[in-house]
């Protein structure tokens, strides 16, 4: 499945899922002083960007070292995205597997990794770079734009929740999950098609 800048941007935005991260982000940041929240959010988004940026450029080498094909990566990435999408659709609001000690300021874990730069995001940027390396400038631009949107969403977390309400935020997240499900299925089908048509 070939991508353009716009489709890569939308895909990365769906994978990063900034709206779905709002309840987790607010819960984690509750113990952080109000004047520090913007600094912490900006720092964590920057760290997540660096992690995904590194994966994008080291993706080809990683595939060689692990003896992985693009077909297997495409199917695996699709499966991961499908799991994330199902959790987005059927998960409970505010559900989180990441704990943090009260009063402790988050650093890298859990906001940068794995909340933003999680396995699905890593697999996505790695797949984009390995499938269409000639468009690497587009992928860097799409990643930058998606991270900027995610960062702005996290910075405005409280205002967004107050403006839209929990029910609307939840509905948007489930809609994004539905779209991501379709993208995930398409990735799996494309990987299987490449495998059976191209052979071993």
TrEMBL record:
Coiled coil: none annotated. It comes from the Bacteria. InterPro entries: Multi_antbiot-R_MarC. It holds the Pfam family MarC. Its main location: membrane. It is found in: Cell membrane. Keywords: Cell membrane, Membrane, Transmembrane, Transmembrane helix. The chain crosses the membrane at residues 45-63, 75-94, 106-129, 136-155, 175-192. The keyword rRNA-binding does not apply. It is a multi-pass membrane protein. Belongs to the UPF0056 (MarC) family. This is UPF0056 membrane protein.
């Amino acid at each position: 499945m070939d991508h353009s800048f716009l489709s890569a941007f939308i895909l990365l935005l769906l994978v990063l899922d900034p709206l779905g991260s709002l309840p987790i982000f607010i819960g984690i940041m509750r113990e952080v002083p109000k004047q520090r929240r913007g600094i912490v959010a900006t720092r964590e988004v920057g760290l997540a960007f660096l992690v995904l940026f590194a994966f994008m450029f080291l993706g080809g080498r990683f595939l060689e070292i692990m003896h992985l094909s693009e077909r297997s990566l495409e199917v695996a990435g699709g499966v991961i995205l499908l799991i994330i999408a199902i959790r987005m659709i059927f998960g409970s609001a505010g559900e989180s597997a990441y704990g943090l000690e009260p009063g402790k300021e988050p650093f890298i874990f859990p906001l940068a990794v794995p909340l933003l730069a999680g396995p699905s995001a890593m697999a996505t940027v790695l797949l984009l770079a390995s499938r269409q390396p000639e468009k690497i400038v587009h992928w860097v631009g799409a990643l930058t734009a998606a991270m900027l949107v995610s960062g702005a969403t996290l910075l405005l977390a409280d205002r967004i929740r107050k403006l839209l309400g929990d029910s609307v935020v939840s509905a948007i997240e489930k809609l994004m999950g539905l779209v991501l499900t379709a993208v995930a299925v398409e990735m799996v089908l494309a990987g299987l098609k490449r495998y059976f048509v191209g052979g071993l």
